[in-house]
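Q: Could you fold this chain for me?
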Amino acid sequence: MNGFVLPGYYRLISAVITPLNGDGIEILGLIPEFSIEESLDKDSIRGSALVYDNIGLLEDLPLRGEELLTIQIEDALKNRVTHEFAIYKITDVEIKKTNDGLTYKIHFMSKYSFEAMFRRIIEPFDDTVSNIVENIFNNYYPGSKQLILESTIGLFRCVIPNYTPMQAMNFLANRAYSRKSPSCSFRFFETSENYYFVSDEYLINRFLENKEEIKEFTFSDAVDKSGTEFLAQMKNLVEIRNSDRVNSAMDLISGAYRSNVIEIDLIKRQVTLPGRSNKYEYDYQKAKKNYMSSSGKGQGQDTHTDDFINGYFTPENERRYIVIRDYDDSGTKQLRGDQFIPEIVTNRLAYRNHLNHTVVYAKAHGRLDLRAGDIINIKVPEFKISSNPRQNRQLSGYYMINDLTHVFNKDIHQTDMKLVKYDWSTRE
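A: Sure. Below is the predicted structure, expressed as structure tokens.
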């Protein structure tokens, strides 16, 4: 059908290194191995490549860590992607035993994130966090990629204190608040298509509202590997690892079920103390109905039983946070408005702990149509002898791609993923 012998085959169409002031040099035959990584936890696409240099590229060009690397790739499903990277580091230089060349590794990152890295922001802002983010992106991130932005509420007055644009974006993500996204789990990250400043709820919602875009994967040895079922092989995961199934100690330490905020209000000269006030008391059992699981709002199944939660996660062992409040909630112009810090702290840490309750590391035949932040549906059979096996309730279901690494080794392309699932047990 596709003319490919193996699933995961890919074609490196071009790989061109361009000096700052010079012509491009094609290095297509010099890089037998390379990888490209996207992650919800990183602000830019990054990667590295092994170079077999027998033309004197490193020393004659020479490579200075200021070159542009343009790569064009096509996968086995005819998905084609073009990346513009900036080379920023060269490591592991070794001389061949025959003394006729070098091997080394070049490290690269998104061209536009690289350019933003060399700028600094010292500027006052008085606006919503989302408007500040849009302002910074438009002024400091050149290029054709768009920013997918989720609106926030609350007036935020601040001075960005000599941060790079990337540091400023991460600082603002930690202060972003939206009632539409109770988890307050905002992130700034980059994919092969766009930049994003959004919450986890935004990422989940966009796929649940367009379920035809959710890609399905199986995990089965029964898939025909003769070549006639090429598409079925491309949709079948090569490997699944569930390395950390349950960790009750971490649930306790992280404040995933109970926490409380001690607020020291410098303006009103008062302290909110646990036991005397339940203003900032956090109880996951009450809050969870507001959260967006991988399957939809309030649909998540919990790891622990209600009896265990009520018996072991108590006010005595709840996690405590201290917040210094130097702002006012009256909305006056003389003081900063409400920053929602207690709500952000308790909700974000609890939600992300539950989001990572089921973490799966999966390997798939290389696909360029997958991106960090995508939702995929995995169907895993029960691991027991049965004439009519059902789906594994813990490992099957909707997952969000947290990390995504495309590994290209000679002629084979593999996609490694870290997948997170809010749901403990999937409903069939």
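A (continued): The chain has a mean pLDDT of 88.
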